[in-house]
Design a protein that fits this description.
Elements: E1 2-5, H1 11-24, H2 32-40, H3 44-51, E2 55-61, E3 64-73, E4 80-88, H4 97-105, H5 109-112, E5 116-122, H6 126-131, E6 135-136, E7 148-154
Parallel strand pairs: 4-5
Antiparallel strand pairs: 1-2, 2-3, 3-4, 5-7, 6-7
């Protein structure tokens, strides 16, 4: 496995990785309509656009993309950042790839400059992120109107 920066030519394959992961793993916590709505916001074009304002990474097993993660500024702030778009193909989950993605993001310049890092966490992934040291923002352990938990880590 190797982790490298996202390249525009990765976009189509990565959109497929995200859609497969959501339809397989996240379906236990979200309705099919919610899944398809989220997938529609993570198309190849939107991933390319996201990579223009984040540091976006992909995990490869040989030449196959099996996971991804991004970090960028939190609403343009210099001292706060956010993690985004963290996915691992279902058949690769539980093998330390998600942990490696978080470790990579936590070595990125956007993490290192931040005093606080936020992550919009899916119901499916909230326990994973909590194991990685993120906790409920302002102590609020409830999903919001976007059906996600807001987690944060202070440095």
């Amino acid at each position: 496995m190797n982790i490298r920066k996202f390249q525009n030519q990765d976009a189509e394959e990565l959109a497929g990785v995200i859609a497969t992961t959501m339809r397989t793993t996240n379906i236990k916590d979200y309705s099919p309509e919610q899944i398809e709505n989220t997938i529609s916001t993570l198309t190849a074009e939107k991933l390319i656009e996201r990579s223009s304002w984040t540091n976006f990474y992909v995990v490869c097993d040989n030449n196959k993309i099996v996971g991804c993660g991004a970090i960028g500024p939190y609403w343009g702030k210099e001292d706060e950042s956010s993690l985004f778009t963290i996915f691992v193909l279902p058949e690769y989950q539980g093998k330390g790839i998600g942990r490696k993605i978080i470790e990579t993001l936590e070595q990125d310049e956007y993490f290192l400059r931040a005093k606080r890092v936020e992550i919009p966490a899916s119901i499916t992934a909230v326990n994973f992120y909590r194991k990685m040291g993120y906790d409920y923002k302002n102590g609020i352990a409830e999903i919001d109107n976007e059906h996600i938990y807001r987690l944060e880590k202070f440095r």
